[in-house]
Amino acid sequence: MRDYHIAVVGATGAAGTELLRVMERRNFPVASLRAIGSERSVGKSVQFRGESLAIEKLAEQSFDGMDIAFFCAGGDVSKKYVPIACQANAIAIDKSSAFRMEPHVPLVIPEINTDDLRRHRGVIANPNCTTTVMLMALYPLHRIFHVRRVFAASYQAVSGSGTRGIEELRRQTAHHDSSRPEGDAAAQDLTHQRTASHPPSSDFGVASSEATTVYPHPIAFNVLPHIDSFLESGYTKEEAKMQDEARKIMHLPELRVSATCVRVPVYRAHSVAVTAEFERPLSVERAREVLSKAPGLELVDEPHNHRYPMPLSVAGKDNCHVGRVRLDCAFENGLSFWVAGDQLLKGAALNAVQIAELL
Fold this sequence. Notes:
Layout: E1 4-9, H1 14-25, E2 30-37, E3 45-48, E4 51-54, E5 56-57, E6 68-71, H2 75-87, E7 91-94, H3 110-113, E8 123-125, H4 129-145, E9 147-156, H5 163-177, H6 185-191, H7 237-250, E10 256-263, E11 270-278, H8 284-292, E12 297-299, H9 311-314, E13 320-327, E14 334-341, H10 345-358
Parallel strand pairs: 1-2, 1-6, 2-5, 6-7, 7-8, 9-10, 12-13
Antiparallel strand pairs: 3-4, 9-11, 11-14, 13-14
């Protein structure tokens, strides 16, 4: 195996930083690495294999001599520069939604549709992180029982909004929690998640416009029942992605997915509550057997012992966790389950590196 010349666009962001860690941890064969960012990132540096790499400004020449270009900088950047990378004979692996639904662009989760990589024309899309977490558990069941329709509710961490979302939750939590009564159990529990300082405050709320720069309402001690903009249907773009992308990845153009996507005050890892209706009869025992053997997935399903998937349990881990497996009481051949996964890893960086490894 030869070594490859790699470009990472958005190297200083949450997904880009994680991608560098994953490549290092998995010993990806790198001959050279070009860390690329926006003009405001120039002057910063990132670490890779013990070396400090200066951030280079994104330009049309950034992809000259590169074999693979990872794009972790958003749809607008991808739309402009992915074609330029391809013209420079680099294969583009794009995290954004810019090319996901293009018919000629493979949308790939390696554990599900590896064969789609064979028809790439220089661009490969990484799926939406929430779709990925859901399908890691749904697809193994589909292979045996044939899914017909899905109802899902996601519980998405603020790191899905990048570093700005993380900082907003930290800031609001510190402001909000400092006025809670001493000894409050909820405040004590939250302390284990918080890494920011606790400035004094006499105001229990966080409703000022200054405190909400990323989200339209406070996210600390709150949940926001929408992610991304609303469509005429009443669903959001994020919710539509879960159906559209699932159809493409699973090659099920008629699959129906009704989703509600919710932002929750969790720093890292998304969770999804799924109810799926299947064509074939199934049992909890058989479903657990299928899930326990699925690649990239761990069955954590001992609810009576308080063992079930949680964001804190999967944060920083490659595999997704699935549990709370039960026959659904509303549908014939229905199954309900709860799946959680680190959206910065399997939902983004890890999935992209796995694609590059397969290439």
